[in-house]
Amino acid sequence: MAKTTALIPEQRRQQILQHLRTEQVLSYRQITELLGISQMTARRDVALLAEQGRVRATQGGATLVTRLLNEPRRAEKAVTGLPEKKAIARAAAELVTDSMTIYLDAGTTVQAMRPYLEDRTGLTVVSNDLSTVLAFLDHPSVDLISVGGRVDPDNQSTIGRLAALTLAELSLDIAFLSSSSWDARHGVTTPVEAKIEAKRAAMASATTTVLLADSGKFGRFAKYRVLSLDELDTVICDLALDEPDAERIEALGVEVVRAQLP
């Protein structure tokens, strides 16, 4: 360990990254033992790596920021993180008042808003999600607009230029966006290029843009950037989003709501 204590700061941080590539998660105690440094130095190095978007700082250490190569299929997403999705959806629905025009992006978390909007009247609901559109067919008081376009069968949604053209002709009060990968450095990203246009068109047409994404998706990034987090008005996540991460997002001027589980 005597040699590692003489490492310059960048060398130390490279070693932290190398160990994380093997272990995925490291506690501050592990970092101090592996590099022979103080816990204060370990925390300082992790904080800088987090600012650079190379790791995600947690309460007890650090985890590696990972790349999302493929969008999970809807069937997979529909059965994961259900309590968190319900909590996020309930908090999102509280932003919706009667007579609003809202956009519900494709995704199971956004679709989970449906039961919490049952008593709203005069709503106009716009969605590119085929399952969400079906879920609103029995709503007692909704003007429903289904966004057309090329169908993505894996996610049961419409994507591409035609979807974006429809959204560009609308005036939305709130756009509720979804994402399978997001972090402070890369923003909202996607491995599917054809999803970008519709999301950006919805954001451009909306007075307010809100991201609904659980903490399990934070710290991941994909090939294509949809938007930077500072372009959002609000992020609604679950309580498992660490306080340092929430503070980093809030420093960008974005409101962070960490929804409590039922």
From TrEMBL:
GO terms for molecular function: DNA binding. SMART domains: DeoRC, HTH_DEOR. Pfam families: DeoRC, HTH_DeoR. Residues 9-64 form the HTH deoR-type domain. Gene3D superfamilies: 3.40.50.1360, Winged helix-like DNA-binding domain superfamily/Winged helix DNA-binding domain. The keyword Transcription applies. InterPro entries: Carb_Metab_HTH_regulators, DeoR-like_C, DeoR_HTH, NagB/RpiA_transferase-like, Tscrpt_reg_HTH_DeoR_CS, WH-like_DNA-bd_sf, WH_DNA-bd_sf. SUPFAM superfamilies: NagB/RpiA/CoA transferase-like, Winged helix' DNA-binding domain. Keywords: DNA-binding, Transcription, Transcription regulation. The keyword Transcription regulation applies. It comes from the Bacteria. PANTHER family: HTH-TYPE TRANSCRIPTIONAL REGULATOR SRLR-RELATED (PTHR30363), REGULATORY PROTEIN, DEOR FAMILY (PTHR30363:SF58). This is DeoR/GlpR family DNA-binding transcription regulator. It comes from Promicromonospora umidemergens.
